[in-house]
Write a structure and sequence with these properties.
InterPro entries: Acyl_CoA_acyltransferase. With 212 residues, the protein is an alpha+beta fold. It is built from six helices and ten strands, in the order αβββααββαβββαβαβ.
C-alpha cells in the first residue's frame, strides 16, 4: 500500500485542532496522485501540492493570507491550458458508525453528482433514499470525503442535515470525513454546519497540462 500523501497529515491535524502557524507562509508539497494539484488555505498559512519546483513556486511570492489562491497564481500553477476547479470551503466531521442508515444505490451512475465525484475521486460509493443521494469516496490526498444531492422536493425541509447525519453512520465511529462545498452554495453550507461539520479552510483543485 503506498504511503499517504503528506497533505493528509495536515488535514487530519486540522480536524484535531492543530493548524499550521499563522505566519503568512506557504508550504509546498509534491503533486497529488492522478495528475492533480491543489492550493489549500488555512488561517494565515497555505499548503500547495504541485509538481513544480518549490523554489520556482516560492519565487512567485504567494502568501498564506489568500495570495496562494489568487487567480493569477492559480493560473500559473495550472499552466496556460490547465484546468482549475472552483473555490470550495473544506469542512470535516467524524463518523458516528453503528447501523448504517442509508442503503446502497445502484441506479445513479449517470447522475451529475456521481459523474463529478468519479472524475476527481476514487472508490466512489453511492447511498441514499427518497431524500437524495450521498457519495462516499477517497478525495484529494486520500481523505475520506462525502457529498450530497437532494431530491428537488427536499429543499427547505431539513432533509439536507438529516441526510448528512445519516451519512455519518456510513463512516466508522471517530474517523474523519471531509466535504468540499462552494461558499456560494449557502443552503448546502448551512446544512453541513447544522449536521456538525466544522470549516477548516478553503481549497482549489487543479490539473496541470503536460506542456505547462
Amino acid at each position: 500500500m503506498p504511503d499517504p500523501h503528506p497533505l493528509l497529515s495536515h488535514l487530519h491535524d486540522a480536524v484535531d485542532g492543530r493548524f499550521p502557524a499563522v505566519d503568512g507562509r506557504v508550504t509546498v508539497l509534491p503533486a497529488l496522485p492522478g495528475g492533480l494539484s491543489c492550493s489549500v488555505a488555512f488561517t494565515g498559512h497555505s499548503v500547495i501540492a504541485t509538481d513544480l519546483p518549490e523554489d520556482e513556486v516560492l519565487a512567485r511570492e504567494p502568501d498564506g493570507y489568500g495570495g496562494a489562491q489568487a487567480p493569477d497564481f492559480l493560473r500559473y500553477l495550472a499552466g496556460r491550458d490547465g484546468w482549475i476547479d472552483c473555490l470550495d470551503v473544506v469542512l470535516a466531521a467524524r463518523g458516528t458508525g453503528g447501523e448504517p442508515r442509508l442503503p446502497r444505490r445502484h441506479d445513479a451512475d449517470d447522475h451529475p453528482r456521481v459523474r463529478h465525484a468519479r472524475a476527481l475521486r476514487s472508490t466512489v460509493r453511492v447511498h441514499g433514499d427518497g431524500r437524495g443521494l450521498v457519495t462516499l469516496a477517497r478525495g484529494p490526498a486520500g481523505r475520506r470525503e462525502l457529498s450530497i444531492e437532494l431530491d428537488g422536493r427536499g429543499h427547505g425541509a431539513g432533509h439536507g442535515r438529516g441526510l448528512l447525519r445519516d451519512a455519518l453512520t456510513l463512516v466508522p465511529e471517530g474517523e474523519p470525513v471531509f466535504a468540499a462545498v462552494s461558499p456560494g452554495n449557502a443552503r448546502s453550507l448551512r446544512a453541513f454546519l447544522a449536521a456538525g461539520f466544522v470549516p477548516l479552510g478553503s481549497e482549489v483543485i487543479l490539473r496541470r497540462t503536460a506542456s505547462g
